Amino acid sequence: MFTVERPEAFNETWARAFNTRELDHLLALYEDEAILADATRTVRGKAEIAFFLGEFLKVPGTLSGRNNFCLQLGDLALLRADWVLRDPDGNQIMSGSSAEIIRRQPDGNWLYAIDHAAGASLPAV
Fold it and tell me: Which of 37, 60, 106, 116 has its CA 20 to 30 A from that of 123?
């Protein structure tokens, strides 16, 4: 399984977990009651997140992610990252900028509390 000991490493770790194409690797990076959203829907809890991520894993390609910033206050961290999904030929399939809150767990690892995959790339309303 994938673990994150430093919050600034979270998005790179998530991308590596995605690229294994193993749903359990991704789910291990979420709290039990975490929230996951994209531009059109929001889900809560590991069962709903599993369905959401299972659909995303059907899209072929390789994901890369890069943190723009990591602001940490105690056991919480706010992240913003840019991510790109490329097909096997290297063409961009989709991309976005995320807004995320991760929380340090009692074992010292960090997990998503809130993952908004498109939160930083949505237009103002």
Answer: 60
